Amino acid sequence: MIVTSSEYDGLAIRVVRIKIVMTDKSLNIWLTIPSGDRRQYLPEIIKESQIPLNKIVIVHTVESEPIEGVNNIWDLEPVNIQRWWNRGIDVARTFGADYIAVLNDDLRLKNNPINKIAYEMNKLKAVLGYPLPYTGAIPGYCWVLDVKSNIRADENFRWWYGDDDIRMQATILGEVIYVPVEVNHLHPNQLTFDNKDLMELTKADEILFKTKWQEYL
User: Fold this and answer.
1) Is the residue at 181 inside a domain?
2) Domain, as residue range, for 122
3) Domain for residue 217, yes or no?
4) With pLDDT > 70 as the criterion, what percentage of the chain qualifies?
5) How far is 181 from 141, CA to CA, in rounded Å?
6) What value does the CA radius of gyration of the chain take, rounded to a whole number of Å?
7) Which of 71, 173, 189, 190 has the fewest C-beta atoms under 10 angstroms from its C-beta?
8) Residue 101 domain-assigned?
């Protein structure tokens, strides 16, 4: 095992490079994915997640047909991805989940990444886990949360910086780890850059984030 440390915004982050050995079969691991019009990747994500269908929550953000076998929720209120995340997290918490993965709907998963991250989190008592390698400043498109940490997405953010906010909350509470797994983000930031309304929300969320966390930035 090799564990190295790096500094991110003045907060220590553990980076884990380790051969994963999953031994505890009792973990209750869930998955939630908010999804609108971009549904073409969902069947493959669901399959490759290796999470049982009854532990998957799809949060539909537009009028759409349910996906067979999973838990379907419709949230047609104004855009707020943090609220969509919380809808899925709250369902998992209701059913006693230990961990929940929160994913974008444009990923390609290989070789059981969600379970690997969750089991490594359990071993290291981490409250938040990410894939490694990743694209972007942080892998907000795929993260696994210790449900019992009681961390919730801050719904004051509408579109951007909610994942940064969760990382900050988690780092204050305990360990944040990065686990070597295979998660490919297919269309990073495409929805945002193609939509001027989402860009405006992003600018507002940036101001809110810097104000909320100015002590640590």
Assistant:
1) yes
2) 2-212
3) no
4) 88
5) 14
6) 16
7) 190
8) yes
